[in-house]
């Protein structure tokens, strides 16, 4: 007898390389339009918002050239009780940016440093509700997001006994 999913994860339609939760029998997945973030829980769309960052280069761009747009997203995330940016790379990549890999072109052309990026993410977390998590890789980021969503679903959907 197949068990019913405990909740449904909604992935934003704009996610290009989405996390896949098909290994987890306790959740269902669907694609939908999400105003803020990349992932939420069906029925709790006003409570949880998860923004996925796939690589340090994307995040550095958000904190540099696209900062005004990204800051507006952080302001929108303040509306959520649970707001997260989950990064698929280690904190070390942010701190060592742009020397985190052997891309000499990036090292020569980048106008921002790891110290600047660290300063900005700390300021964002002090000023806004968002929590920024560095998970090391895509698999650990996905597992972290799934565990967060399970805890939040449990919090809001406890069965009265």
Describe this structure in words.
- The two termini are 24 Å apart.
- The chain has one domain (7-156): Rossmann fold (3-Layer(aba) Sandwich).
- The protein has helices at residues 56-63, 67-77, 91-95, 104-109, 114-127, 138-156, and strands at residues 7-12, 27-32, 39-41, 48-53, 82-87, 131-134.
- It is globular and about 55 Å long.
- A three-stranded mixed β-sheet has the order 2-1-3, covered by helices on one side. The chain has a three-stranded parallel β-sheet with strand order 4-5-6.
- The chain is of the alpha/beta class and 161 residues long.
- The longest helix has 19 residues, at 138-156.
Helix and strand content put the structural class at alpha/beta
Tally of separate domains: 1
Main sheet properties: 3 strands, mixed
* CATH domain fold name: Rossmann fold
Q: In whole angstroms, how far apart are the ends?
A: 24 Å
What is the average of the pLDDT values?
A: 94
User: What is the approximate shape?
Assistant: globular
Secondary structure tally, helices: 6
Radius of gyration: 17 Å
Helix proportion range: 25-40%
- Enumerate the spans where pLDDT stays under 50 for 5 or more consecutive residues: none
CATH class designation: Alpha Beta
Number of β-strand runs: 6
Strand order of the largest sheet: 2-1-3
CATH architecture descriptor text: 3-Layer(aba) Sandwich
Assembly state:
single chain
Strand content: 15-25%
> What is the string of SSEs from the N terminus onward?
EEEEHHEHHHEH
């Amino acid at each position: 007898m197949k068990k019913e999913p405990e909740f449904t994860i909604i992935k934003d339609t704009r996610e290009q390389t989405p996390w896949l939760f098909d290994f987890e029998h306790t959740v269902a997945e669907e694609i939908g339009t999400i105003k803020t973030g990349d992932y939420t829980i069906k029925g709790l769309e006003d409570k949880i918002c998860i923004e996925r960052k796939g690589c340090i280069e994307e995040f550095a761009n958000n904190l540099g050239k696209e900062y005004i747009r990204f800051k507006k997203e952080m302001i929108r995330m303040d509306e959520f009780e649970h707001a997260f940016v989950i990064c698929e790379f280690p904190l070390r990549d942010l701190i060592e940016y742009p020397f985190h890999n052997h891309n000499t072109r990036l090292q020569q052309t980048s106008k921002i440093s790891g110290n600047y990026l660290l300063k900005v993410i700390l300021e964002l977390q002090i000023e806004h509700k968002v929590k920024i998590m560095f998970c090391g890789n895509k698999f650990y980021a996905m597992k972290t997001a799934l565990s967060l969503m399970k805890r939040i679903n449990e919090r809001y959907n406890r069965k009265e006994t």
